[in-house]
Amino acid sequence: MKTSISSARMLRRNIALSLAASLLLCSFPAFAQESACKSKGGELKVAYPDLARRMKIYGTVRLHLLLTPGGTVRESKVLGGNPVLASAAQDAVKKAHFEGSEPCVAVFEFKE
């Protein structure tokens, strides 16, 4: 009896993983074609979070930005990166103004 329950769980898990992978692969090309965001005020300054500094968290954060006609951020979506760092990057882009109004991708490097 235990083997049939384990098999059913394993099957559900494999189906869920397959669906998640296919959704990720299907949505990725839409973001890959978008250009890099260009800030009107030069390079964006992002505050390195104290928590990340203490925990020695570093890495790259990628954000997909939807802009208003005036160049401010209407919506930002995290495409990748540590959540602590991503939160700091999202706070920075909310305060910035960008060239154009087309969707774009912003990339931030957090280093020690």
Briefly, what is this?
With 112 residues, the protein is an alpha+beta fold.
SSE arrangement:
Elements: H1 2-32, H2 50-55, E1 59-67, E2 73-80, H3 83-94, E3 104-110
Antiparallel strand pairs: 1-2, 1-3
Order of helices and strands: HHEEHE
Low-confidence stretches: 21-31
Number of strands: 3
Gross CATH architecture of the largest domain: 2-Layer Sandwich
Instruction: Return the CATH class of the largest domain.
Output: Alpha Beta
Identify the overall geometry.
Answer: flat
The helix tally amounts to: 3
CATH superfamily of the largest domain: TonB
Radius of gyration: 19 Å
Q: Structural class from helices and strands?
A: alpha+beta
CATH topology of the largest domain: TolA/TonB C-terminal domain
In total, the number of domains comes to 2
The main sheet orders its strands as 2-1-3
Give helix % range: 40-55%
The averaged pLDDT comes out at 82
Task: Write up what this structure looks like.
- There is one protein chain.
- The chain is 44% helix and 21% strand.
- It has two domains: 1-33; 35-112, 2-Layer Sandwich (TolA/TonB C-terminal domain).
- It is built from three helices and three strands.
- It has 112 residues and is an alpha+beta fold.
- The longest helix is centred in the N-terminal third of the chain and has 31 residues, at 2-32.
